Amino acid sequence: MKKQEQRSSVRLMILLLAVLGICFLYLSYNxxxxxAFALELRGGKVLAFILVGxxxxxxxxxxxxxxxxxxxxxxxxxxxxxxxxxxxxxxxFLGGRQTLGETSLTTFLMNVLLMVxxxxxLSYFLLKKSGNDLFLLLMIGMIxxxxxxxxxxxxxxxxxxxxxxxxxxxxxxxxxxxxxxYLLIAGLLIAGLxxxxxxxxxxxDVLHLGNNQAKNLGINVPRFQLVLLFVIxxxxxxxTALVGPVTFLGFIVANVSYQWMNTYRHRExxxxxxxxxIFLLVFAQFLIEQVFKLNTTLSIVIEFVGGxxxxxxxxxxxxxxx
Length: 322
Known about the structure:
mainly alpha, ABC transporter involved in vitamin B12 uptake, BtuC, 14 helices, transmembrane
């Protein structure tokens, strides 16, 4: 047991050093001695990477423990589609230029509250109607995601082409245009939700054994699942409202954390997943800015790598079961 703890500490320390190294490289490379300007320009992006990485790691690991499936992510509840629908409705009814001009902290919080409110309300009523059948809820979430996408597509087809062009820029994940006024409030909200998952990590360790075992050990599983859905929806809603949809990030870091740490203890998985997410985001952004000269975007790189990793994991799991 002591050797396992020492091994985990060493692996976490390696990840921490890797994160500090890549952050220093990103902040200092090609600054031409203009440190203040570089820190102001790149520092906000690094803060956004940290917030999105922590939110993605905590929400995905908790969601996969709740569903006991390492292939699922919170986006299966249709939160990405809901974000696209909310943005499309705003652009359709208010107009793109007016919506972009009125972007403020109030608009940001309204986006978060709307996404979290709708997803939690749907989850609550659907869980009650389905007798707490979690997999029926996930299936309904997938159908709702398709429904939201259909409405968004219909509105985008009849939209003014100029408004549609502005909308497309809003629907892709972007770390370059994060408003600093959002970082403080988003950071406080994410810290509160992450702290909750941290102090309840011992319940997640037990839930990892299975629902029946968790019930036998005295956990009110339906109530705990509902609270988890609320917290996970909040983290995904904040992350998406801050930078846009980043579908595969949580899937990559959660599964690599399981393999790297080789433990069921969620506190260690949370730390490892967060550090991995921050490292991947900063490293990918460094490559995009310094190697590819901004000819591609971070979201495209994440979706491409995540898609390949997803297919590779499915093939690997299939071979192991034969």
